[in-house]
Amino acid sequence: MEKPDRGLHHLLGIDSLTDRDIESLIERTLELSNGAPASSASVTTANLFFEPSTRTRVSFELAALRLGMRVINIELEKSSATKGESLEDTVATLAAMGVGCLVIRHPQTGRLQQLAENLHAPIRLLNAGDGQGEHPSQALLDAATLAADGLDWSQATIAIVGDIRHSRVAGSNLKLFDRLGAGRLRIAGPEEMLPDPPGIERVEVCHSIEAAVRDADVIMMLRVQRERMDRAGWPDPDQYHRRWGLNPAHLELARPGCRVMHPGPINRGMEIDGAVADSDQSLILDQVRMSVFARMAIFEWLH
Ligand code: NCD
Questions:
Q1: Can you tell me the mean pLDDT for 77-97?
Q2: CB 135 less than 6 A from any atom of ligand 1
């Protein structure tokens, strides 16, 4: 893979990637998923997650192990973060011990960017989700999943449905799909879950799930991010499902063979019917499979 000619760099968001970076990261992810040998790296990486995670944390760990890296999972409740240490000091401390990469998930939007701007230690930061900001590795693995499935970007209508406003997955995916030249990009969800402004200028805002999925080639469903809302704003799950949940009838409105995606965790019977999540059109587990290869490609690219 072509290495960037920059010095120390990080994976913070989609905007910090060049077109060449995006192209090589997706290409390398596909090569690895097709069995290409991985390069080995004698680097130690640490996972520092201030929010829960199954897929992202485990796949970053598996990716590192497959590259021969050492992995440390920092248990927050047993760390000095509980004694009032700042994140900056935690990062400097880990770097001083020789940790070369730090995968961070943080509830505050923009926290990784801020950390990188003030960083003096030789450690690479990987954004595993910052509040409602970005989740760049998720977007890369989603794009690689679609590329592996043969999506023709320029002809594709991609609909992202659900809680767009609070979703860092939507944040990064809209930017990346735009950069990849997706034909049409649509978003849909309840008024209070739509971003303002919509992030990408050319995105079409739909006010019903039916309008969003009509003739779509890809439907990406998102979970309602209750952890980022006031309790008063929580929707009733049944009502939400009736209005915004993806069901088999919706697939009839989409293009034949339309792919269904979801970054997980899925809430069956809320944003998506179990039957749709488990259908032949669902790429949900393909996304999970691809996640390990995408994160291997990211680690290779960082070193
Ligand atoms: C997402 C996240 O944490 O942003 N999950 C993931 O990383 N696969 C989406 C979500 O939590 O709904």
A1: 90
A2: yes
pLDDT tens digits, residue range 115-138? Answer: 999 998 999 999 999 999 999 999
Closest ligand 1 atom number to CA of residue 169: 4
CA of 222 to the centre of ligand 1 (A): 9
Query: CB 227: neighbour CB atoms within 10 A?
Result: 9
Ligand 1 atom index nearest CA of 291:
8
Distance CA 210, CA 117 (A): 43
Residues whose CB is less than 8 angstroms from the CB of residue 138 and which lie 6 or more positions away in sequence, other chains included: 56, 129, 168, 169, 172, 173, 263, 291
The predicted-structure confidence for 102-117, as pLDDT tens digits, reads as follows: 999 999 999 999 999 9
Domains of the chain: 14-134+290-302 (3.40.50.1370), 150-282 (3.40.50.1370)
- pLDDT tier, 42 (very low <50, low <70, confident <90, very high otherwise): confident
